[in-house]
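Q: Could you fold this chain for me?
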Amino acid sequence: MGTHVHYHFGPDPSVVTALNALTAEIKKMSATLNNVDTEIATLTSDVAAETSVTNSAIALIDGFSAQLAAAVAAATNAGATAAQLASFSSLNQTLAANTTALAAAVTANTPATTSTVAGATGASTVAATPPAS
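A: Sure. Below is the predicted structure, expressed as structure tokens.
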């Protein structure tokens, strides 16, 4: 006849506490990652919108310059004199100066920024620097 010994014991409270702490930390990390995903999606959308506005402004300014050049060419072909075209030349110079000033102002007033993703543990930092024109 054989002897069987069965020993039953409960979980170690320190192990249970450690597992609960790990579970809570994993849940916090998951929430932080979800927040980061949302922040990235928002940033991506903002960059796309800003790019669209910037490209529209560039197209508008380039369009003015092209229209002015076409008007000067048409007037020259129609026999306009240099004196008659002087105002167009002046406008073209002013447009070029304004375009340069606008580009400089955008660059000068777009600071390199650093932002920390909200809710991140261990500070994730994103640096934004304006593109060179």
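A (continued): The radius of gyration is 33 Å.
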